[in-house]
Amino acid sequence: MFMWKKRIWLLTILLLLPFIAVHSLSATTEESREALKSLSAKVKKVTLSNGLRVIMYRRGSAPVFTGALAVRVGGVNEKPGQTGISHLFEHMAFKGTDKIGTRDFGREKKLLARLEEIKGKEARKEPLTERDREELAQLYKELEQLWEINKFMEAFEEHGANGMNATTDKELTQYFVNMPRSAFEFWCWMESERILHPVMRQFYRERDVVLEERRLRYEDDPGGKLYETLLAVAYLRHPYRNPVIGYKSDIESLTASMLYDFHRRYYVPSNMVLSVVGDIDYDRDLQMLEKYFGRIPAGASPSLHIAPEEEQRGERVVEVEFPAAPQLLIAYHKPQYPHPDDPAISIMEEMLAGSRVSPLYKELVQKERIAAEVDYFEAPGRLYPNLVVFSSSVKKPFSVDRFIEKFDRVINDFKKTPVNNDLLLIAKRSVAMNYLSRLSSNDKLALDFASSEVTYGDWRVLIDWFDKAMAVKAEDVSRVARTYLRRGNRTIVKLKTVAAKR
């Protein structure tokens, strides 16, 4: 279910199994349950006058808090030809507002409007005249005199901000920062201002930055290239197949006007959730949140209609040529939460590849020495049927095909053999420890609150999913393994090593 699920090496537990496995699981699970119960009792969920939902949780003695804003928009919302617009807007959200980042917004606004007129020609594939180019140069020269590009970030830093960042994925865009308690009103003002009054300042230069980011992460990186190919092959019609960063030609065609339209449609209170975790005052801070975030116009809730991906009927295997060591991704389609199989699939993944006693690790890394490690993750989103992906790099002198042969032998044995209860306990404890780890962090908890609420409509899905995962039985794991780990349900992307181009 949760994209942040990662494996945890439980070395102490492995050394002491089976003597303390049951007690350890029980203690860790109970500790996690108690922590989740505490959340349920202390979390305050309110809705501002404009429909913006807010999750508030007071805890800890340090005078700090984390503020997080989750917007239900990402790659799945993008129109054909506009892939990457969600991610690019996230970048622009750090460029300031009509009040922050400029010496004279009235003048800047007129110059940006003229800049957009000329750049619009490029978007329409109209050639620019020499006069256009000269005017562009003059516009940028004047704008440079007005811009204070780093002012937005500097203002946060001056008020003690730490860990300020943002992320964009298939369905969500999230903004988050850790702040001192004394800067709560400042944060409310600044965060609401960039939602109310964003300015596409230095847009076309930032677009070039994103194009370079795409080149480094996908075109020149073997792992990124494999992953992009995997989604394009595993999904034939669903927008999960499109990269969040966007296709190169689409990014090049995006304009500032498109981003303003995008903002007006999706950055509305009904499509956002705010969360604050740490040293907060429920009543006083709620008034502050209403004062600033309540200013955001309600707007209409955006609609989204996506045709479902048809069931895959047959294994898909593709090969990518790249000057890098052999590696591969093996992905199986799976249902998304709240489908009842999702928790059992998560436990199954952890059993197969989450520790050094997992069968894939023991067979492929320790015994056969084909790979340095075998990892897993879920991708690419939460709202629609997604994938469980196994990844590995293959060591010399072995081939990717040899790895797949051994991988399939492990998977087939796992499906045929009764589930090992020790492995089941380890997997559950890993999940429980992961929960405890996130519950102890203000920023992770704030992000989980906001993302769960905006995605599923109720942050308490965090508790529901945990309870269901801890209740998974051996027969559940066997059943989902047989149901989903089928060749006809999978896609394999292999990297074929070739010489680098000169």
Description:
By secondary structure, the protein is α+β, with helices and mostly antiparallel strands. It has two domains: 25-36 and 311-497, Metalloenzyme, LuxS/M16 peptidase-like (Cytochrome Bc1 Complex, Chain A, domain 1, 2-Layer Sandwich); 49-101 and 148-293, 2-Layer Sandwich (Cytochrome Bc1 Complex, Chain A, domain 1), CATH 3.30.830. Helix content is 49%, strand content 16%. It has 19 helices and eleven strands. The protein has helices spanning 11-16, 21-42, 85-92, 105-123, 130-146, 151-158, 184-196, 203-219, 222-234, 248-253, 256-266, 282-293, 342-353, 359-367, 400-416, 421-439, 442-456, 461-470, 474-484; strands spanning 44-47, 53-58, 64-71, 162-168, 173-180, 272-278, 316-322, 327-334, 371-379, 386-394, 490-497. The strands form two sheets. The protein has a six-stranded mixed beta sheet with strand order 1-2-6-3-5-4, sandwiched between helices. A five-stranded mixed beta sheet has the order 7-11-8-10-9, with helices on both faces. Strand 9 (371-379) and strand 10 (386-394) form a beta hairpin. Helix 14 (359-367) packs antiparallel against helix 15 (400-416). The protein is globular and about 70 Å long.
